[in-house]
Specification:
This protein is of the alpha+beta class. The chain has 27 helices and 28 strands. The chain is about 40% helix and about 20% strand. Its EC number is 3.4.11.2.
Length: about 800
């Protein structure tokens, strides 16, 4: 079914015409137990400000019948996901009966069969305009209304929605299958994209804490893993609800708060009171510190959306950043302030911020806020600029006006606009009132202009270089000065500066090393002076603050993108830092960054030695309790000598899980040793319902065409790769830089496959990013990819990802020549 995309002008016209009083939606899931049929009856009560006017309702389903105010509506005119409505009265009741069998692609809904026990699970995820695929509605964010659900589901299933069920009763005993009817109360006034219905024979755990009824759900085959991590998930949930409720001056207004881990969801979704996560967040192996931090960030991010996105919602998709950037910033803020992950800002800088610099320095750069003409264009902005740069800019705003004013502005915002829709101007007006500052120029330069400022020191002046001749942005930043004359770095001074214009005088004391943007308060690349750069890389381990050490690693990454550093020097600096690093917040990000530079950025003549050096350092970290698991994983990816393999084999023999054995099999396969019998034994002994993906990773690494073809088939023909963060790992395993000649034909096939991708946005986005041949593509592919980025037959998201990744690939190819 071809679907129209709602334009901003159409949305504005419909919003001016209609006000929705409520949705009463009956869903029938019985047909999903053994088939693919989802049915719904949507009753929409609404008013029209111009009686006699006409409009359309969104419904991308097979429509059986529709009535408006008791009169039959001709459904033969439905097309492109829209049902035209006849002349409206002042008060209207529209009833649409519809069904769909499109339940296997993840477009709004996904029916999944667990391969281990054949149990069926169903989830919905409706952003941005996928609600129309499951029931009739006016599918735009500014037509909020209460939703009431009545769900008929097989009797063996549990159903979750946005609140606690009012009743659960047996269905008509004359039905073909045993079923129960779940009735849920009215939601608050919500946008159509943040309501939800999930169902299946879930494992459920409920706990009462702090006035909230907390629920946790997963498929039965993962019950033991959820139980393993339950205490941590409960603690994070309690910490987040308490912290945000206090800071926002608006406690979460509902007792029920559910978190549902579902199969094959590429990310998470902030449904009001019922968050869904891809169940890859239930790590099959006891998670490392970094994995726990990532999951905590998911918990805090989706929870922040309860206020910023659900309670107060953007009027239109041009303010998408109001949702995503704020939730990302609030997640890190909340974790650093209220959880055990107190060094989260250092982790964010070391592990995530680089992705925003990569995109913002590339031809894919775009303003954080931009005009969005239609919904399909909006989704092209679900990227690192929206999420990562956006939260970095908010972090700069906190520094610019002060945290007290920032929090006061938020309290004003939620108090004024609860359950309504807003624009960016509404938010910035709250910050201006709280801070007493005119923020119009700050808003324009930071949110309406693309590109990354580059900072450097020229004597006693701080110099700002800009993109495309733009005026420099205002920056509030710190500069730290260190004395390096002795065996240790000694802090001389740390000063704060408000920077405006191309050159700003800064009064700094004498010192050997000057660290610009200490504390990482602003979003900018930094070019250190030659002496500071040399000392930073040689003595990174001597900075006492983890955030400063993270800044050194981040600056080195920026210099790679700017073409001002060689991979060998960056890898050596990171390896040197790892030799003495003690912060769990940095060990894994540094290991990952060092591995990426040594493996993907370095030329083929230097990569083996850099990997061997990294593996040597990983061996020294194996005996550090907080680093052991991450060190072994890095060692498994870089093992180069018999001594390395000896350490791995000893650790694998003592391990209680199979994770390390799988990783060793991947590395051996990459080196040409594919042990089919060994892989079969691992597969037979692994209880993970997605263990087949581990076998696929071993194949992905193997340097034969047959192995690569099987993985390709799984990605692009069978769509058999479950969507999770591991999808990205599988992609990087496939594109081994040392196999460039073998992979050359696949690089061009990737560009062809972009025209035929299936599934919902989250899952398509994962495949696009995972399977770009970063590090394996050559100059011919790069030229073809840059040309494909201008192909308007590709969706905008794919074109933007091509531009961003091609920029990085181009920098990699240049860096290998340094």
């Amino acid at each position: 079914m071809s679907l129209s995309t709602l334009t901003s002008s159409e949305a504005a016209a419909r919003s001016a015409l209609l006000e929705v009083q409520r949705y009463d939606i009956a869903v029938d899931m019985v047909g999903l137990l053994e088939g693919d049929v989802w049915s719904s009856v949507s009753t929409i009560t609404f008013t029209c400000s111009e009686p006699g006017a006409t409009t359309f309702v969104d419904v991308a389903m097979d429509i059986a019948r529709a009535t408006l105010n008791g009169e039959e509506v001709d459904v033969s005119g439905a097309a492109d996901g829209r049902l035209p409505l006849p002349a409206l009265a002042a008060d209207n009741v529209l009833v649409v009966e519809a069904s769909t069998t499109n339940t296997s692609t993840g477009e709004g809904i996904l029916r999944t069969v667990d391969p281990t026990d054949k149990l069926v699970y169903v989830w919905t995820s409706l952003e941005p305009d996928e609600a129309r695929r499951v029931w009739a509605c006016f599918d735009q964010p500014d037509l909020k209304a209460p939703h009431r659900f009545e769900v008929t589901a097989p009797s063996s299933w549990l159903v979750t929605s946005n609140g606690a069920p009012e009743s659960v009763v047996d269905a008509d005993p004359g039905a073909a299958l045993d079923a129960r009817v779940w009735t849920f109360p009215d939601t608050p006034r919500l946008s159509t994209y943040v309501v939800v219905v999930n169902a299946g024979p879930f494992h459920e755990v409920r706990q009462q804490h702090d006035g909230h009824d907390l629920g946790f759900y997963c498929r039965q085959s993962l019950a033991s893993i959820l139980e393993r991590d339950l205490d941590e998930l409960v603690t994070l949930t309690r910490q987040g609800l308490a912290f945000f409720g206090e800071q926002f001056g608006f406690p979460f207004p509902q007792e029920r708060y559910d978190q549902v881990f579902v199969p094959n969801l590429g990310g998470a979704m902030e449904n009001w009171g019922c968050v869904t996560y891809g169940d890859g967040q239930l790590f099959r192996t006891p998670p490392t510190h970094a994995q726990r931090a990532v999951r905590a960030e998911f918990v805090f991010h989706e929870m922040a959306h309860m206020w910023f996105g659900d309670l107060v919602t953007m009027q239109w998709w041009d303010d998408l950043w109001l949702n995503e950037a704020f939730a990302s910033w609030a997640a890190n803020w909340g974790m650093a302030s209220a959880s055990e992950f107190s060094d989260q800002w250092a982790t964010f800088l070391a592990a995530s911020k680089r992705t925003a610099y990569e995109m913002d320095m590339s031809p894919a750069r775009h303003p954080i806020r931009s005009e969005v003409l239609d919904v399909s264009s909006a989704m092209s902005n679900f990227d690192a600029i929206t999420y990562v740069k956006g939260q970095s800019v908010l972090h700069q705003l906190v520094a610019y006006i002060g945290e007290a004013a920032f929090v006061a502005g938020l309290r004003d915002y939620f108090g004024r606009y609860a359950y309504t829709n807003t624009t960016l101007d509404d938010l910035m007006a709250c910050y201006s009132r709280a801070s007493g500052r005119d923020l119009s120029e700050w808003t324009r330069s930071w949110l309406d202009e693309a590109g990354t400022d580059v900072l450097s020191l020229d004597g006693d002046e701080l110099v700002v270089e800009t993109t495309d001749g733009q005026a420099p942005r205002p920056h509030r930043l710190d500069i730290a000065v260190f004395d390096a004359s002795g065996d240790e770095l000694v802090s001389v001074a740390r000063s704060s500066h408000e920077v405006s214009g191309t050159r700003t005088p800064v009064d700094l004391p004498a010192g050997d090393l000057r660290l610009v943007n200490a504390g990482d308060l602003t979003f900018a690349a930094v070019k250190p002076d030659p002496t500071s750069l040399r000392l930073m890389l040689e003595r990174v381990q001597q900075f006492p603050d983890p955030l400063d050490r993270a800044l050194v690693g981040a600056t080195a990454g920026q210099l790679l993108l700017l073409g001002d550093a060689a991979p060998r020097d960056v890898a050596a600096g990171l390896t040197r830092a790892l030799a003495t690093e003690t912060s769990p917040a940095l060990i894994e990000p540094f290991l990952a960054h060092a591995l990426q530079v040594s493996d993907r950025w370095a030329p083929a003549s230097e990569s083996p030695a850099l990997l061997r050096g990294l593996a040597d350092v990983a061996v020294t970290l194996v005996d550090v309790p907080d680093a052991r698991q991450a060190a072994l994983r890095t060692l498994a990816a870089s093992a180069s000598t018999e001594a390395h393999w000896s350490v791995l084999e000893d650790a694998a023999a003592r391990a209680t899980d199979l994770d390390l054995a799988w990783r060793m099999a991947v590395r051996r396969s990459e080196l040409g040793d594919y042990d089919e019998d060994g892989v079969r034994r691992l597969l037979e002994s692994d209880p993970d319902p997605d263990a087949g993906m581990r076998r696929l990773a071993v194949l992905a690494a193997h340097p034969t065409r047959e192995a690569k073809e099987e993985v390709w088939q799984a990605f692009f023909v069978d769509y058999a790769v479950p969507a999770s963060r591991e999808t990205l790992v599988l992609g990087s395993t496939f594109w081994r830089p040392g196999q460039a000649e073998l992979l050359a034909p696949f690089t061009h096939r990737y560009l062809e496959e972009l025209h035929t991708l299936k599934g919902g946005l989250l899952n398509q986005g994962l495949t696009i990013r995972a399977m770009y041949p970063l590090g394996a593509g050559d100059a011919d592919f790069l030229a073809a990819a840059e040309q494909a980025a201008d192909d308007t037959s590709l969706m905008a998201y794919a074109r933007n990802q091509l531009r961003a990744n091609s920029f990085v690939l181009g920098r990699i190819l240049q860096a290998r020549a340094l």
